[in-house]
Amino acid sequence: MSTCLGIDVGTSSVKVVLIDENQRVLASASSPLKLSRPREGWSEQAPEDWWKATVAAIQAIKKQRPKHFGAIGAIGLSGQMHGATLLDPSDQPIRPAILWNDGRADKECLELEQLEPRLREIAGNIAMPGFTAPKLLWVKKHEPQVFSRLAKVLLPKDYVRLKLSGDHASDMSDASGTLWMNVGQRRWSQELLAATSLSEEHMPKLFEGTEATGQLSQSLQKKWGLARRPVIAGGAGDNAAAACGIGAVKPGGSFVSLGTSGVLFVSNERFSPNTANAVHAFCHAIPKTWHQMGVMLSATASLEWLSRVMGEPAPRLTKALGERPKGPAPLLFLPYLSGERTPVNDAKARAVLCGLGHETDRKVLTHAVLDGVAFGFRDCLEALKKAGTKVERATAVGGGSKSKLWLKIIATVLGIPLDVPVAGDYGAAFGAARLGLVASGREAAAILTRPKMSQFINPDERMRALYEASYETYGKLYPATKGIIRHG
Description:
Radius of gyration: 22 Å
Number of helices: 19
Mean pLDDT: 95
Low-confidence stretches: none
């Protein structure tokens, strides 16, 4: 029996899963990564650390399941998006990779849209500091000696692909987040590349996520003791891979990701941008399919911030509130701890707590944070509606989805049911492994299915009107404070 390996190059760790032909998870392992912040607002990692962590996690898988490991026939890749990995002609990194949550290139975003006025039309997205292209403008301006040595720009997971196979390749979904793609036509844009003084020679070859980009190198096959050289799938950016993991691949397929950041993801049959409200419109990992995302930067990160300030674990904070909402919190929380994407695209915005009083305690603060994140998701939903997208229900994923109370609040604020999968691993690494199965010859429709659900969280109709009124007030916070509360 052939097995498949899924590799997810995250920000805090590399996770690897091994699945069989029936998609049963046989083993999983992760290896931690360190984040470097050499200056305020910067976020970097050493590309070689991704590879070391990948090898460590793979070795752990091999130790757990040596027989099944030897039967690997395919490998799928997923990873954090937007990271600028700059290589010289010998494929050696010439500086640390600049990551998705790095905010240094805000000025370059304005310059990029001036250099190519059709950017939003071609890319389907606003230039944001987290995206890849503005970072290259920053490097060109501030590190000309680095820029002069540049031969290739890869995304994080594609650097790992290079180490696995020697191929310069990427998939449509991950490449959509560079701002160098004509997303509607699923190809590199010469116009957008020229705006950053680059060409297609600097880019990897593009593949669909379900296509094979190459095979594992013979040297690694021998070193790892594999019976054959596995094919390597194009894979996907982390959110598109997670969508493949939970079967959100048909038009209308949706999920709410309650992780460090928050994502409201919808699969589309056509390219549907809404740049006016900072909606992300990208290619999906599936051919002839696109997706939209509303993205908030601090979802569970908001609760983790409160946990750190209070000196109490987040699960204990939420448990104290019970399992059912009793109405909105008496104060409001704007969750812009590190700026925000949808709907404001403002890297310098900061969070606000409004309505504090002598009676405010940790329960009220916790409640306000849960509500504020739910309202952030509602902003994403409203932005998607303006793009002509209807979301009727969504699957809940991510660490925060373990809180039934939080899901109930989010369902109530969004006005849609949330489906919770049965216990299992449906994350990006699993989605990547699924894409590996498809690249090895399996039928996509038979592989990229929805998992069984354990819970169906419906909106609390008794609380809808109260939450609607609170959301309306919440909507006034950012406009009222954006000229006052800012970073930098």
